[in-house]
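INPUT
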Amino acid sequence: MSGEGSPRRRRRWTRRMPRLLLTLYGLLGFAFLYLPIVVLIIFSFNSSAVITFPLQHFTVSWYRELREDFVLLGAVRNSILVTAVTTVGATLVGTAAAFPLVRMGFRMKRTFNLFLLLPIVIPGILTGIALLILFVPVLNLTLSLNTVIAGQIVLAGPFVVLVVASRLYGFNQQLEAAAMDLGATPWRTFWHITFPLILPGVLAGALIAFTLTHLLHHRPGQHAADVHLVAGQVRRDPKAQRAGLDHRRADAWHAAHRELVAPPARRLKMRRAPRYRAPAAGVLDSLMP
Amino acid sequence: MPRLLWGLLPLATIDVVLFLVPMVIMALFSLRFSEELLGLTGRWTVAHYIKVFTSEGIYLHILVKTIVIALIATAACLLVGYPFAYFIASTSRRWQGVLLTLVIMPFWTSYLLRVYAWTAILGDRGLINEALHFLRITDQPLSFLLFNVFSEIVVFVYLYIPYAVLAIYASLEKMDRSLVLAAMDLGATPVQAFLRVVLPQTLPGVYASIVFVFIPILGEYVTPTLVGGMSGVLITNLLVNQIHALEFGFGAAIAFVIATFVLVLLLGLRRSVDLERLYVG
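OUTPUT
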């Protein structure tokens, strides 16, 4: 009895074993991805000004401080501006370019495609420094939010092209032909047929442009020139600054982060426009003088 | 409808004026030597490049070190990320959606803070050391965890593994599963089936993750600055130092050496990775 039962049980066990190990591995993977975020949330409620263990006592004072920091609020305004302009600009420009790239054949199309996608794969810091050289020694411009926006659109535009293009590839053009046959003008056809159908793609493109812009703010290094340099203050050795990074500010930042970034992330899951995500980005700039 | 072609104009103009032209100017700058700060006057020279490749080998050494570290981090991303992607692909449709969202979610939080958080995990009074101390495994904090090449690679893997997972997942999804069953029916062991059926079919995903992991790491600047310490200095740190010192010519030369390396790599991978296909699917 047991001689017959146990091999079967063992077989079932050995069949499940890889599955269990894989699931366990997956859980460990997610733990790895979320550990730093959990740590940050914990420290945003910790009374100590430095982020070291053991934890002190629970507090919400960092969140309160956040609302009273005017430097920070100014940066928030800047971020909203940059993100809004970049998102709208990149979405318009990218969508317009996606149509000919998908629907038309022309000479050197492949080369042109590669050229348009190049800003995506070239590390942002190189694009940023090239832009800095153009703006400062060559054109003698004053660095400002305008130059930041210019840099962001270069990086976000190609992403919009990709997303909108993927939507256009699956587009049934007979619908447009039908509308035209029924007497619609091209303009009317566009607004009543084409636009509603590609809208998800355009929104996804806008979301990517938005996310990228918000990320770029968070990536002063990778896009050093975009943020640190093009933003107007050619800053001195960043290492020294970061060594002197004010931890209390940093924790206020954690608080900002939880308050401004996490709730929109939840909203995002509900497919609503994440309105308050960008602000947190600008907070960073005030953190890193 | 040739009118459609006009749609290309704005983006093409932006790309030419704000990407191509700056890159060409940067290349020209790297070939100029000027006595005055920010000067456009000067003479043509390859001195900056000679300095990159000689000057007691510092720049060359750091460049090679950057490439090696990026290679190690990419290999680690692939090794750790592959089973993870496999796990996601092996779940039901509904779970796949949830799990993929969970993989992408960290992107929506601050990049810099996520790097910064690692100092609270790996530091002398960080999560790991405090836990080890609490469990009485160590009396002294392990100081080799932070501010060196090790912590740098850990953070690189942490930051870029989602890209590797997504790329590998995409190719696992497209894979024809009946081939795996056929291989098993014909007597292949699971390991053989994986190596000879699954892996070759997912190579595009592996190549794609090289583009989205290895190349961005070459341009990483925040991570070495925040967690790399003295031993973790990478080429981008040297590059940004030059820019901050307003040594645009020499900085441009360093930037151009990196850009050339990236371009050669992309051209080499062009046959393996169809960039357009990656997104269009």
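end of record. The mean pLDDT of chain A is 68.
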